[in-house]
Amino acid sequence: MTVRFGLLGAGRIGKVHAKAVSSNSKAKLIAVADAFEKAASDLAGQYGCAVRSIEQILAADDIDAVVICTPTDTHAELIEQFARAGKAVFCEKPIDLDVERVKACLKVVDAEAATLMVGFNRRFDPHFQAVHDVIAKGEIGTVEMVTIVSRDPGAPPVDYIKRSGGIFRDMTIHDFDMARYLLGEEIESVTAQASVLVDKAIGEAGDFDSASVMLQTATGKHATISNSRRATYGYDQRIEVHGSKGAVSAENQRPVSIEVANASGYTRPPLHDFFMTRYLDAYAHEISAFIDFVESKSPASPSGIDGLIALALADAAVKSVKEGRTVKVSEVTGVMADRSIFQGR
Amino acid sequence: MTVRFGLLGAGRIGKVHAKAVSSNSKAKLIAVADAFEKAASDLAGQYGCAVRSIEQILAADDIDAVVICTPTDTHAELIEQFARAGKAVFCEKPIDLDVERVKACLKVVDAEAATLMVGFNRRFDPHFQAVHDVIAKGEIGTVEMVTIVSRDPGAPPVDYIKRSGGIFRDMTIHDFDMARYLLGEEIESVTAQASVLVDKAIGEAGDFDSASVMLQTATGKHATISNSRRATYGYDQRIEVHGSKGAVSAENQRPVSIEVANASGYTRPPLHDFFMTRYLDAYAHEISAFIDFVESKSPASPSGIDGLIALALADAAVKSVKEGRTVKVSEVTGVMADRSIFQGR
Amino acid sequence: MTVRFGLLGAGRIGKVHAKAVSSNSKAKLIAVADAFEKAASDLAGQYGCAVRSIEQILAADDIDAVVICTPTDTHAELIEQFARAGKAVFCEKPIDLDVERVKACLKVVDAEAATLMVGFNRRFDPHFQAVHDVIAKGEIGTVEMVTIVSRDPGAPPVDYIKRSGGIFRDMTIHDFDMARYLLGEEIESVTAQASVLVDKAIGEAGDFDSASVMLQTATGKHATISNSRRATYGYDQRIEVHGSKGAVSAENQRPVSIEVANASGYTRPPLHDFFMTRYLDAYAHEISAFIDFVESKSPASPSGIDGLIALALADAAVKSVKEGRTVKVSEVTGVMADRSIFQGR
Amino acid sequence: MTVRFGLLGAGRIGKVHAKAVSSNSKAKLIAVADAFEKAASDLAGQYGCAVRSIEQILAADDIDAVVICTPTDTHAELIEQFARAGKAVFCEKPIDLDVERVKACLKVVDAEAATLMVGFNRRFDPHFQAVHDVIAKGEIGTVEMVTIVSRDPGAPPVDYIKRSGGIFRDMTIHDFDMARYLLGEEIESVTAQASVLVDKAIGEAGDFDSASVMLQTATGKHATISNSRRATYGYDQRIEVHGSKGAVSAENQRPVSIEVANASGYTRPPLHDFFMTRYLDAYAHEISAFIDFVESKSPASPSGIDGLIALALADAAVKSVKEGRTVKVSEVTGVMADRSIFQGR
Fold it and tell me: What Gene3D superfamilies does UniProt report for this protein, alphabetically (chains A, B, C, D) (predicted)?
């Protein structure tokens, strides 16, 4: 079977997914849509597919699944439309910046028994997946403390910041999902501190560029997250898990693994310059997993619920910074209680 | 000039200092005192020095300086006695578990214009010192985020825990000092979370064995600390500093640097098994620095104030865990305000 | 422009090239030929191309270039046929096991002004290429000593050994080419020692499984090569270049970059298990370079001459082991003198 | 028991041994002798020992053992004198530059049943010793290939070169001993190539500054050695052993283990700047081992025979370069045959 794809959005992340879909022998990219005609036609030219409007893709008989890479404020509406149209949906995170809107959207997905997968690409990185495997095999015993360092190479433009929902919903959201994935149990409380150290304009826009977060589960497991919007040395992406019998870690990746030695010392090249190259394999594996879910009609993972919970953790972090205290996830939203209403799709 | 030493306490850490003093060409170990006669005479035999009572050392003409390695609850009293007797004092951390008692003690030290150095040995580790040097030279720009991982190889007996003042005052206190040392400015707020994951008996004794801490300075700089009482892989001691122009880190140390490769992979030996070997060089450099302060009659560093502030940070962490909120250091104690009353000795 | 490919040989290395050709947006795999019908049809099915005989590919109008992955003893004949048919030729190493036969073949290639590229894939590995770039930029000054470690994960069957031409022509040949590539000047003398340590049957077949080689250039530069047919820890592929101003090295690659720590130490996974995964990127870049040569009609590199010289170095190594002495490359063959007769194609 | 030492020679290596002896709790440095009065008195002042003539040390009742650090051409004569005087002798390598002279000297040692230990300090490096232990425990199976990289930070003055006996007898001699130590069996043949790449003056003095060596044992095991007189990145000292079940390696050591990251990459400091710091621990362990041999009156290791064989390997390397061929150790000297005449002392 070949899964026939429509791509919604031909921007930076849309290009990444177009490549992943096109390289997959079980997938075929049929059409691409974008508000900017030229962006769509350029991508269509590169991969030999059609340019269509979103409405045409919605109505198309020759499309089984869509990848949603449009602006965040359109995600929930599009998920609902395509779920109702019987298409499988892969949506970039976040579903929406508002928890209630996400919940409403997931109810539609649930009612339609639609396949929805949310783009937490890092779960599909082979190195992080190997870390998860080591944990799953019991090699480090019971997980006790997860440490995540996640730093961008450089701060985005303030215009981006303003539409982003803030550092916790835009950037840390990936780390919240990774923490859940590695802890293996739900997070109960969030404590965060944040400040503006990189770019004053970010502060003036009401956001932060440097953040530290502590998470705790009901059984007392910890996770800590360290975020910065600027690391001169590249895209810093490390995870480390300490358990009762040992620890496992995934080091940073580099485009080339050489070392130059001279009188100044031994120098290895900087890290990858951003997610498009750092997570190249992860994006390919992610689409591959989505195709498997579509083919097998089994619930996708990470699911809409995973997207919802990560967002709720971000909301709790925002509240924690504002109020200077530890925030229970249950305070922020009834998400955990609501969880049972969803069938895990 | 040779500095003539008396050693108070011949236990585990006393032995470490006896070795450091004896190996230093500018020092001479004259006498050792210990409540357990045999501990004192064994150490005296090994290093060819006398066994004396604390009173005899206090009264001795042939002793310039003492190293206090007795139980914590005797530290403040001994510091005061030896300061009054005109001896230079090196005291193992902490000065006392009670901030007010520490302040009273430091007033005596100040009044006597005595030399007092507190045993934050990690500042003298050559690797951590090299990290500090890199920062001082401006190589990483402005410091923004300090990350400290500090894990013991195994939990101590519950009897030790009961007398320890709790994980923050006993273990994290070193990390609080290191955070201040690397941040280069005072910490304004402390947020901590802690749990019992290693040994239930530690929880029954009212303490924790796993802790995460976030610190913030007035200018918004962050530090995070991750502590566990048990790491199967050895004594885990790492620091990492992220700044505006780059980052610097000090990796873990191993007794031997080999790697064995076979079908299971590439294996390096575990870390040092505890502080006595991991910080062997640090203890030697620490005593050497103390001797320099004694000889030059300049204020010692880390000073009594450094000991006081680290303790106040520990108190703030305790309060933070209890109340589930960020605690300002100013809440806990008037330490920062009081600081000016001390002359930095 | 799209370069239309025929693939000759659908075995292990044929599959690797089929994938590289198919993934390249400037290439199209038109047909595959193999003496075993099923091998050809399986591969054709996987990549959606035709099955044809070699004769059909030779006569085809819709094929611009061929990749020769057939058994070694057919290479020279096929190169000549396809060169005469006006097709661009990419041929797996070696062109032939006999230097004189290679020279005769290259004369045909030269007479036809055909494009011929020889499959020294390692030159296209991004890490080794980065090493070459560092040298080219002068970062380590003048190259003085090249060190190559190249070990296979496990010894091949004795049947393979018997047809292989021996360890120097089959395995070390890659390292001879790499040494030339990194030294940046021709090798003047070869000294080798070899023994049977892995598998007695290899010795009984008249070959060796463990070899050490020293090379020297006219200006006195050194290269050393260490080969073994069996490394339990994986496919060991390292290069290191020492120069007047510094050194540069490329470490081994692993499928995943994680580390597991426990009481036994810190363990990283084994290396790649062989060239198909270790050099995946190299094969893709290699075909990409070939396409560029075909499109630009410029001389290919590595060329037939590069293939010839590497074979001559292997012959010199064989002679060195046999005679227990350093062998000048000029002794073995008139290759260097003949070099001028070839136009570098 | 305390072993009472006389030190002959207060130069660079003499100072290293003075420190090692003085720091050892089972040793006492009684006297130092040097042709330059001031060198002797400076060292004596530093360690609180006497200045004496060699004759006085020879006649002294209060000296049990001597450390010979005088110029090479005096070693054999001094060993004989002190052996006859009943003192235990530790002598820096080499015993003499002439194999026959060494053999004559060892006969005297043997006749006197004297304790003689030769200064192959690297055997006592904790990292290299750990490599040896891994082999001894069978963790890598049967040893097959030893790889040694040994490069000095900078070329010595030509005056030193002229008296040195040449690169193989002066520098590679340590690597010959290490190869034997790790191979665990005697070397049968030596093949070497050498050139002048660092300093023409070294070539004009009849020596080389860059050398590669291949060794082979009777059972076909290999060792390769790579030497250069100049490595801008520090004192490069690495060993690696490949065996039937795995491999073990010892990486380079650095004074500090930090890493600085910025836009140019990740930089670790250069290596140790020379043997005095790189092998600090090794020198201490070496003297400690010597003291144990003296106390237990057991044969010392590395012995005079070890010194003799390493020299014979160097002679074979010289011959190999001159004649452009593999040289059997048996050609160079009757050392192996003679071996039985020595009682291993």
Answer: Dihydrodipicolinate Reductase, domain 2, NAD(P)-binding Rossmann-like Domain
- Distance from the first to the final alpha carbon of chain C: 22
CA distance C314 to D155: 34
Q: Are residues D251 and B258, on separate chains, in Cβ contact within 8 Å?
A: yes
CA distance B56 to B61: 10
Which of C25, C46, C260 lies closest to A246 in CB terms?
C260
Q: What is the CA radius of gyration of chain C?
A: 20
pLDDT tens figures, A85-121? 999 999 999 999 999 999 999 999 999 999 999 999 9
- Torsion sign (Cα): A283, A284, A285, A287: positive
* B315 token code pair: 């108190």
Residue C256 scores a pLDDT above 90: yes
Given pLDDT bands bounded at 50, 70 and 90, which one contains residue B5? very high
Give the Cα separation of C106 and B322 in Å (integer).
Answer: 82
N- to C-terminal Cα separation, chain B? 22
Cα C132 to Cα C180: distance, rounded to the nearest angstrom: 11
pLDDT < 50 positions in chain A: 335-337, 340-345
What ipTM was estimated for this complex? Answer: 0.94
Helical spans, DSSP H, in chain D:
12-23, 37-47, 54-59, 72-84, 99-112, 126-136, 158-164, 167, 173-183, 200-204, 275-278, 280-296, 304-323, 329-332, 335-338
Residues of chain B contacting residue C233, judged by C-beta atoms under 8 Å apart: 261-263, 265-266
Spatial contact of A172 and A228, defined as CB atoms under 8 Å apart = no
How confident is the model over C10-39, as a mean pLDDT? 94
CA distance D237 to D250: 9
Q: Could you tell me which chains touch chain A, where touching means 3 or more CB pairs under 8 A? A: B, C, D
Q: Are strands D265-268 and D258-262 parallel, antiparallel or unpaired?
A: antiparallel
Which pLDDT score is estimated for A53? 97
* pLDDT of residue B292 exceeding 80: yes
Question: What domains sit in chain D, N to C, each tagged with a CATH number?
Answer: 3-120 (3.40.50.720), 122-276+302-341 (3.30.360.10)
Least Cα distance to A131 among A271, A237, A275, A239 occurs for A239
B340 — pLDDT class (breaks 50, 70, 90): very low
Q: State yes or no: pLDDT of D141 exceeds 60.
A: yes
User: Could you tell me the two tokens for D318?
Assistant: 């010289």
How remote is the C-alpha of C241 from its chain's centroid?
A: 20
Please tell me whether residue C309 adopts helix, strand or coil conformation.
helix
Alpha helices of B112-218 — where are they, by DSSP H? 126-136, 158-164, 167, 173-183, 200-204
Chain A hits for D232, Cβ within 8 Å: 261-263
D2 contacts chain B (CB < 8 A): no
Give the DSSP letter of residue B241.
E
The residue type found at A90 is: F
Do β-strands C210-217 and B236-243 pair in parallel, antiparallel, or remain unpaired?
A: unpaired
Neighbours of B114 (CB within 10 A): 21
Instruction: Give the pLDDT of residue B332.
Output: 87
Give the model's confidence band at C25: pLDDT under 50 very low, under 70 low, under 90 confident, else very high: confident
Query: Of A233, A263, A264, which is closest to D261 when you measure between CB atoms?
Result: A233
**B264: nearest CB among C261, C262, C267:** C267
β A222-228/A210-217 pair status: antiparallel
- pLDDT tens digits for A46-62? 998 999 999 999 999 99
Give the model's pLDDT for residue D345: 35
